[in-house]
């Protein structure tokens, strides 16, 4: 019986410890810039230490937020793998600088596209080697 209790406690601890991204929908508002999320393949999110999700329009937007809030800790940061449409931890992603459409659709802006594999990132990008999350945050302006 003690073994059963130990198993239940261990399973509960593992289930509570894993952090999953919240669903993002087109039209949700970015926490940082307040613009609508238009392309779900570019979306990102932060899960704070209370497990509350905060949505971002792009990886670049979340990087700017992280840099502007350097002293703050987060439970998780997720970005969307452009190839699969699935969220993955930002620390595991490869990033390619890219020009993406602005929400108004009339112009483009510099940002990043995230990929789960380096080979996918290299196939997409033409501007040097893919970047890791720490590099994206380091390059982000703190505004």
Explain what this protein looks like in three dimensions.
By secondary structure, the protein is of the alpha+beta class. The chain has one domain. 28% of the residues lie in helices and 22% in strands. The chain is built from four helices and six strands; from the N terminus they run H-E-E-H-E-E-E-E-H-H. It has helices at 2-17, 59-68, 118-124, 133-139; strands spanning 44-47, 53-56, 76-80, 87-89, 94-101, 108-115. It has a four-stranded antiparallel β-sheet with strand order 2-1-3-4. Helix 2 packs across helix 4 (133-139). The termini are far apart. Mean pLDDT is 86; it is low at 3-16.
What's the SSE blueprint?
Elements (H helix, E strand, L loop, with lengths): L1 H16 L26 E4 L5 E4 L2 H10 L7 E5 L6 E3 L4 E8 L6 E8 L2 H7 L8 H7 L4
Q: What is the CA-CA span between the terminal residues?
A: 56 Å
Task: Compute the number of structural domains.
Answer: 1
Radius of gyration, in angstroms, nearest whole number: 17 Å
Listing every helix as H and every strand as E from the N terminus to the C terminus, the arrangement reads HEEHEEEEHH
- Strand order in the largest sheet: 2-1-3-4
Shape designation: globular
Structural class: alpha+beta
Number of helices: 4
User: Could you estimate the helical fraction of the residues in percent?
Assistant: 25-40%
Can you tell me the residue ranges where pLDDT is under 50 for at least 5 consecutive residues? 3-16
Please describe the biggest sheet, giving its number of strands, its sense, and whether it closes into a barrel.
4 strands, antiparallel
What is the total tally of β strands? 6
Strand content: 15-25%
The mean pLDDT is 86
């Amino acid at each position: 019986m003690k073994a059963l209790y130990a198993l239940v406690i261990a399973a509960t601890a593992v289930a509570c410890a894993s952090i999953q991204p919240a669903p993002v929908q087109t039209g949700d508002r970015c926490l940082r810039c307040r613009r609508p999320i238009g392309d779900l393949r570019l979306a990102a999110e932060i899960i704070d230490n209370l497990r509350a999700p905060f949505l971002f329009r792009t990886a670049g937007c979340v990087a700017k937020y992280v840099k502007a809030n350097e002293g703050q800790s987060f439970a998780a940061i997720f970005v969307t793998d452009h190839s699969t449409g699935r969220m993955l931890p930002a620390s595991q992603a490869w990033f390619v600088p890219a020009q993406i459409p602005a929400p108004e659709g009339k112009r483009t802006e510099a940002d990043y596209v995230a990929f789960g594999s380096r080979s996918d990132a290299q196939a997409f990008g033409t501007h040097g080697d893919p970047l890791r999350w720490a590099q994206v945050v380091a390059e982000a302006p703190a505004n």
